[in-house]
Amino acid sequence: MKEPKISVIVPVYNVEGYLRKCLDSILNQTFANIEIICVNDGSTDGSRKILEEYKNKDSRIKIVDKENGGLSSARNAGMKTAKGEFYSFIDSDDWIDITMLEKLYNNITEFNSDISICAVHQFDETKQMIDDSNPYYTLGYFNSSFDNRAFSYKDTKPFIMDVCVMAWNKLYRRSLIDECSAEFPDGLIFEDGPFFFSIFFKTNRVSIVREFLYYYRINRKNSIIQKAGKKFLNVIDVAEIMYTKIKDLPDFDDIKYTFFRKKVEDFIYRFEHLNSKYKAAFAKKLKKESSLSNEKLFPPDMVKGSFRYNYFLFSNLKTGNILFYEFQKYKIKSMYKVMEILYKEDGVYSFKYKTNILKFKKHPDFLDIYYYNDKIYVRILKKIKFDFNFKFSVLEKFNEND
Q: pLDDT tens digits for 157-173?
């Protein structure tokens, strides 16, 4: 019997309301030479019955039954069974465009890549609408120079921690995964980063498909992310694992501050959304975190200069004093709000730092400044003679070509 070209691995756990849509989107692929390995991770609803129904309709479906162990263990179990030359991971509450596998396969073969990545639609389950505002999922961080070629992680160093690490919008060459002995960290959520970076750093051949071919369902009721329970503490474990993936890179110094910024953002975001009864445990665990707290690796003066907002919240959170952290967060966010209001004055850009208010006459032909999502953005339209210093904000400068 002919071996399948692509092994599609689908972890399944209590998704009876979404599973048919997912399986239909895979079975109807324009690329037919596939096997579909459905790993039933101890489902207690009707998911197993649906899998059996679909298996009886299409012999390409294979069912692997196991005790519940989480998403990582399910994907790892699927890889052990897979026979394809390439792997694709599809989550069972999501679905894919019927051309996804064909387009990723054509891309990966055309450029002899080891990983091919496509853009992702976020489908909001609550609003029942698609959201394409996040460049993390839309490949927005990749400019046109990445099109129609293969590249390595070194080409992505300016935004390396903003490369989408999710397992499911990609096609992987199996030989690379085998060579790296890559697995998902068992028992942890936020598992995609360690898996992705363990292979991303080992290849010089990655390519992208700009089209939106994957539909990622967000705000799904009863999902692990929606529950925001104790598993959210895994974000600290995952950061430690990811540090081990990058610390020995020859260009570690070039990307370490980007790593700091991204992981601290992850800590703060997960803490903010965490069920309140686990917040003290989160802060206690964060006290023991070692990589980002290493002042030899991340000198405070350096990180404060570049990521002042993140640094202060991270430092305060590590004290374990939740009330003090909340006060500092409120204080900092209030300052940003003052900045937002002030800069809207007619005729001038206006900023407040402590008791000082700095004002600059608007020069729309030279400079554009705007506030969005807790950041001040500066777009230089033409070179101008005066300089100014933002002592308190995350500042992103854009040149004329951005």
A: 989 999 999 999 999 99
Measure the CA–CA gap between 376 and 174, rounded to whole angstroms. 43
Assessment of whether the complete model's pTM goes beyond 0.70: yes
Amino acid symbol at 137: Y
Half-sphere exposure of 134 (CA within 13 A, CB side): 14
* Average pLDDT score over residue span 6-27: 97
- Picking from 393, 355, 386, the residue whose alpha carbon sits closest to that of residue 371 is 393
The string of pLDDT tens digits covering residues 382-402 is 544 444 443 333 333 333 343
Give the relative orientation of helices 234-246 and 279-287 as an angle to the nearest 10 degrees: 30
pLDDT digits 0-9 by tens, 215-246? 999 988 777 666 678 888 999 999 999 999 99
Q: Which residue has the tokens 């570690």?
A: 252
Beta strands in 42-137 (DSSP E): 61-66, 86-89, 95-96, 115-124, 129-131
Separation in Å, CA 21 to CA 102, 215, 220, 248: 19, 11, 15, 43
Tokens encoding 362? 């608007």
Walk me through the domains of the chain, giving residue ranges and CATH numbers. Answer: 6-219 (3.90.550.10), 231-320 (no CATH), 337-398 (no CATH)
CB < 8 Å & 24+ apart, contacts of 323-328: 325/283
